[in-house]
Amino acid sequence: MLKGTTVSRGVAIGKAYLLDRSRVCVLKKKIQPEDVEKEIKRFQEAIDQSKRQMQEIKDKAGKVADKYAIILDTYMLLLDDDILVSETIENIRNEQVNAEWSLTLVLNKFNTLFENMNDEYLKGKQDDLDLVVHRILRNLLGHDQETLADIVEPVVVVSHSLSPSDTLTMSKNHVLGMATEVGGKTSHIGIFSSALGIPAVVGIKDLTLKINTGDQVIIDAIEGEVIVNPDKDLLKTYLKKQKNYQNYENKLLEEIDLTAETLDGSPIHLAANIEMEHEIKSLRKFGARGVGLFRTEFLYLTSSSLPTESSLFKTFKKVLEGVDPHPVVIRTLDIGGDKLLKNSGHDREDNPALGLRGIRMSLHNPKFFIIQLRAILRASLFGKTKILYPMVSNVDEIIQANELLEQVKKELQENQIPFDDEIEIGAMIETPAAAISVKHILEVVDFISVGTNDLTQYVMAVDRTNENVAHLYQPFHPAVLKILKEILLAAEQSGKPVTICGELGGDPMATMLLLGLGKLDELSMDPHSIPKVKKIIRNIHLDQAREFADQVLNMSSVKEINQFIAEEMRVRFPSDFDRDQTFEEKPGKTC
Ligand code: PEP
Ligand code: MG
């Protein structure tokens, strides 16, 4: 059994198709000084050839879905990348070595830089670079670019990595599941597989060495496991597990049009967290009522130059029109820390999580902030828009940001550019300072949104991206829960709405507890989580949830709390929590 990380849930069983995306073998060859220019020309031809191939794929991609065309733009930009191309040429000149070797040296240098980053999103970019470099290498070596276009029967695709061109060319009906050695939740395979509902497990070490084309493979994308050549009994077990999981998902999706309200009639608004415009398609599929958190930094991180007011306006307008009549909460840039923009004049910081990020960065360098505010205000005519400030730690930051907002509004009015003058303003509550002074914050905003990811990180003093302390990252810690209760109480007393938009908001295990902690108006989450969270909400009484939360708040040990919640949810929702852990048949039970 091979272990990895699930990026799209489900169980797939079928014959393996091994796509050979493993390293091409590159040898170091010395070249004569008089051959240097010829070698550079050969390299540039391989770049041009790669660009032509990418353009062809991009043309096809545009016809299938905009999002693939966008991903391919990122790839094309890498081919134009100054460092990648000019450093390789420099290596050919200075070292007098072949183009393949020179390019590999540049790739290795980037890989070392990526290894030292602890941002999952940027690490996903490492895979992009790897794919582009391997395309150039294959062109240099005269290898064919192997494609998945020839698959004619249903298979489980197994590969070192998968590029958008792979996923575009393969026949979706024939791909039962996917497993790769690299990738993460934000990698292309993560986006692609979950958008299409194809079970996928990534990050499996030495996968391609252990599987051959034709092997029978089970992708258990519930447990994050891959089983090769199972015996008859094991196969039977997994066929049953697959059926159970499919039935379960279908049942949840039948309820997407039902309202999310408790048995005693308290409604909770369920909204989606999105990062890119194309994701609004999944809102309808999973029954989200609007966007509760649009993380705009991804528009900056996926672009080689800073997005202009006009490109931001176009994106916001499309999202607002697509989500109308439901609202869209646009969070202003939460950049900084380890997500740095090129040319932003941002120095490397020793403690980036405690540094110039979120609203601090926007106030420090208002140029980007003003451009964003102008784009948001202009787009606000096309749907119900709300603005959310991230990483707030005091009231003065909000006042200062609002002053800039007023200045932008005045400029627009002077130029007779229309916008929604009643636009609502909210603050993320994700620092302990904001949580403790939430009463004062509520006096200067229209709503608040609790970022439990950062709130947990800062309350616990545990870096949310550091795997060495991952076991100490505890959203169910009594301190975090107590703070959450206080925040909800303050919001209720102020009469202003409160959303929870961190991962905890989309964790069905936490739903009943969150509802019991206090008056909650909205939960915003990854759209896929909505059906299950809604099911929990529709099957509880608010007073039961309150009693449950009170019991939890009386406990001192995180271990005890985790066990208590898991057991209580299993007893209350046996078909969701019990079976959800394994989807396996239990003796005497039918699913
Ligand atoms: C949070 O901190 O909970 C949050 C929603 O923001 P992000 O995860 O983007 O930091
Ligand atoms: Mg945050």
List the helices and strands and how they pair.
Layout: E1 2-3, E2 5-8, E3 10-19, H1 36-64, H2 66-80, H3 82-95, H4 99-115, H5 120-141, E4 155-159, H6 164-169, E5 175-180, H7 188-196, E6 200-202, H8 207-210, E7 216-221, E8 225-228, H9 232-253, E9 269-274, H10 281-286, E10 291-295, H11 297-301, H12 309-323, E11 328-331, H13 359-364, H14 366-379, E12 385-389, H15 395-414, E13 424-429, H16 432-436, H17 438-444, E14 447-450, H18 452-460, H19 478-494, E15 498-500, H20 508-517, E16 522-525, H21 530-538, H22 542-553, H23 558-572, H24 574-582
Parallel strand pairs: 3-4, 4-5, 5-6, 9-10, 9-16, 10-11, 11-12, 12-13, 13-14, 14-15, 15-16
Antiparallel strand pairs: 1-8, 2-6, 3-7, 7-8
Helix pairs in contact: 1-2, 1-3, 1-5, 3-4, 4-5, 12-14, 14-15, 17-19, 20-21, 20-22, 23-24
This protein binds phosphoenolpyruvate and magnesium ion.
Phosphoenolpyruvate (PEP) is lined by residues 293, 295, 334, 430, 451-454, 501-502.
